[in-house]
Design brief:
The protein is mainly α. It has helices spanning 14-31, 38-57, 61-71, 74-87, 119-136, 139-142, 149-181; strands at 33-37, 96-103, 110-116. The protein has a domain at 14-123: Ribosomal protein L17 (50s Ribosomal Protein L17, Chain: A, Alpha-Beta Complex). Helices cover 65% and strands 11% of the residues. The chain is elongated.
């Protein structure tokens, strides 16, 4: 009987399973969204969410050592404590989201995308501030003076000269080609 067994074995022995969870968690913290099987995503949630809670509660040397013991990546431990913990400081839990996304072509395994909640909000905020000045810039020329008859005549005159210049340039190139051919 299966009573009181928790967690999934994922067809691996203990060391392989722990290495798999470590690698998946490092990828999740680095990219903030990954695609894997549904079973691995559900196990990864059990592995990754307590690490974010640890980073929220204990931002000291001991907390970083505990996180490093699980992740074995200085870069991701730093990101966990510097960016992810402040991002989820007000959230009481549920830092990840699992979205089912069909079946894998080769073996028909159910696939899922697991992502950190609110990862798009942080990336989209700086983009809005950059695009706002660009939107304001076109409004200034629209408020310019209306064109007078003199301005339109000046614009029309250079436009009429351009086709004549093109024809003259074509005649010169044709003459140059004929002289090289002869």
């Amino acid at each position: 009987m299966r009573h009181r067994y928790s967690g999934r074995q994922l067809g691996r022995d203990t060391a392989h399973r722990e290495a798999l969870m470590r690698n998946l968690a490092n990828s999740l913290f680095e990219h903030e969204t990954i695609k894997t099987t549904v079973a691995k995503a559900k196990e990864l949630r059990r592995f990754a969410e307590p690490l974010i809670t640890l980073a929220k509660r204990k931002d000291d040397v001991a907390g970083r050592q505990l996180a490093f013991a699980r992740l074995r990546s200085k870069k991701n431990v730093g990101k966990l404590f510097k960016t992810l913990a402040p991002r989820y400081n007000k959230r009481p839990g549920g830092y990840t989201r699992i979205l089912k996304c069909g079946f894998r072509m080769s073996d028909n395994a159910p696939m899922a995308i697991i992502e950190l909640v609110d990862h798009n909000v942080v990336e989209a905020a700086p983009a809005k501030t950059k695009s706002a000045p660009k939107a304001a810039a076109p409004k200034k020329p629209a408020a310019a003076k209306p064109e007078t008859k003199k301005d339109t005549a000046k614009k029309a005159a250079p436009a009429a000269d351009k086709p004549a210049e093109k024809k003259a340039a074509e005649k010169k190139t044709d003459a140059a080609k004929k002289s090289t051919d002869a």
